[in-house]
């Protein structure tokens, strides 16, 4: 259900932008989605096909650019991707980190006719 | 037909965020400290709210928004305590959003409220992605869930201002590494405050009440 509301918001944003540009059809929507956003692209596509029916976005292709999780170590500034659930810095082994990438959930652009 | 690319560069949840800012403004106007309480199902959100009401009701005027997939069991319990409460049934939705909260605010006496407790839907994945207009986010993680939860649901822990480690009365029966848990949580979120508590026995609750009381005062004196 998480993806349902995300898809609804995404579709309404795309339709708004297409309308502003007086476009007659949306052919592609380019999205950037981080691993930590909890958004499953297959689910979004599934809901999109259902929700976009009877709109100018019907049949549009969704393109997902997936962003991996990246964190920065507070102590040594090393930027790394946690692996196997290990969030400690592989360089200095400190546990203090901040998430720098992986939470993205935005629309980069739309392609219209 | 020529294909034209339109740059958007906007957050997909931008509409929710806009609505949340409007909710926040409305709550700020009335000086209502608003807390979004998030956790997995069964971690103790309703128990926390009920014991907080019992302890705080003479010190602050409290209202509650109850978010649940279905039923009004929790709202009924709170209503019996004589506290203004609105039940939101998300009808399968796994989180509250700013629009649902906006509607709920219309049914609450905001001018006579100091503290609004919002019980989010029990879920560790997405409630943190939807801001509601809250001042603070409080997460409950209970000992039976295990000490590995911070690394399984990092975004939720990273976004919380307070983490209540609940059900500490069960510690003797569990292999729960409290120090390891605290280290993991503060590793993800250096500014977080962790209160080990038991809503059942009351152990550790004074620290939580103290934090909440000063936050209510801080909001009033802004």
Mean pLDDT over the residues of chain B = 95
Described by the principal axes of the CA atoms, the overall outline of chain A is elongated
Strand content of chain B: 15-25%
Low-confidence stretches of chain B: none
Order of helices and strands of chain B: EHEHEHEHEEHHEHEH
Give the spatial strand order of the biggest sheet of chain A.
Answer: 2-1-6
**Strand proportion of chain A:** 25-35%
Shape of chain B: globular
Structural class of chain B: alpha/beta
Give the rounded overall mean pLDDT of chain A.
93
What is the distance, rounded to the nearest whole angstrom, between the alpha carbons of the first and last residues of chain A? 31 Å
Helix content of chain A: 25-40%
Strand order of the largest sheet of chain B: 4-3-5-2-6-7-8
What class do helices, strands and sheet pairing of chain A give? Answer: alpha+beta
| Whole-angstrom Rg of chain B | 18 Å
Assembly category: heterodimer
Low-confidence stretches of chain A: none
Major sheet characteristics of chain A: 3 strands, mixed
Please tell me about this protein's structure.
- The complex is a heterodimer of chains A (113) and B (222).
- Helix content of chain A is 27%, strand content 31%.
- Chain A is of the alpha+beta class.
- The mean pLDDT of chain A is 93.
- Chain B has 8 helices and 8 strands.
- Chain B is globular, with a radius of gyration of 18 Å.
- Chain B has 222 residues and is of the alpha/beta class.
- Chain B has a 7-stranded parallel β-sheet, with helices on both faces.
- The longest helix of chain B is centred in the first third of the chain and has 16 residues, at 14-29.
- In chain B, helix 7 links the parallel strand 7 and strand 8.
- Helices cover 36% and strands 22% of the residues of chain B.
Concise description?
The complex is a heterodimer of chains A (113) and B (222). With 113 residues, chain A is α+β, with helices and mostly antiparallel strands. Helices cover 27% and strands 31% of the residues of chain A.
């Amino acid at each position: 259900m998480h993806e349902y509301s995300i898809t609804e918001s995404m579709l309404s944003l795309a339709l708004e932008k297409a309308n502003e540009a007086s476009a007659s059809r949306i052919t592609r929507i380019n999205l950037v989605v981080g691993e930590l956003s909890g958004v499953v692209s297959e689910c979004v596509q599934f809901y999109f096909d259902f929700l976009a029916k009877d709109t100018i976005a019907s049949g549009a292709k969704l393109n997902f650019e997936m962003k991996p999780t990246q964190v920065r170590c507070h102590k040594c500034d090393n930027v790394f991707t946690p692996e196997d659930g290990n969030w400690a810095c592989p360089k200095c082994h400190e546990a203090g980190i901040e998430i720098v990438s992986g939470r993205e959930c935005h629309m980069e652009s739309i392609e219209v006719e | 037909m020529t294909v034209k690319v339109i740059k958007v560069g906007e957050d997909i949840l931008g509409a929710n965020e806009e609505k949340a800012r409007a909710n926040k403004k409305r709550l700020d106007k009335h000086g209502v400290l608003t807390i979004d309480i998030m956790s997995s199902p069964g971690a103790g959100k309703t128990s926390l709210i009920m014991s907080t009401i019992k302890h705080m009701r003479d010190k602050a005027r409290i209202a509650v928004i109850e978010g649940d997939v279905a039923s009004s069991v929790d709202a009924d319990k709170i209503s019996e305590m004589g506290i203004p409460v609105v039940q939101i049934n998300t009808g399968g939705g796994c989180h509250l959003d700013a629009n649902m909260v906006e509607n709920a605010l219309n049914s609450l006496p905001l001018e006579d409220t100091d503290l609004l407790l919002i019980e989010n839907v029990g879920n560790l994945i997405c409630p943190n992605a939807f801001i509601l207009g809250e001042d603070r986010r409080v997460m409950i993680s209970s000992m039976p869930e295990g000490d590995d939860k911070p690394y399984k649901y990092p975004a939720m822990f990273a976004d919380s201002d307070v983490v209540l480690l609940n059900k500490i009365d069960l510690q003797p029966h569990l292999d729960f590494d409290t120090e390891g848990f605290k280290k993991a949580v503060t590793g993800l979120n250096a500014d977080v405050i962790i209160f080990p508590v038991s809503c059942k026995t009351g152990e550790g609750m004074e620290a939580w009440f103290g934090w909440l009381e000063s936050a209510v005062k801080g909001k009033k004196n802004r």
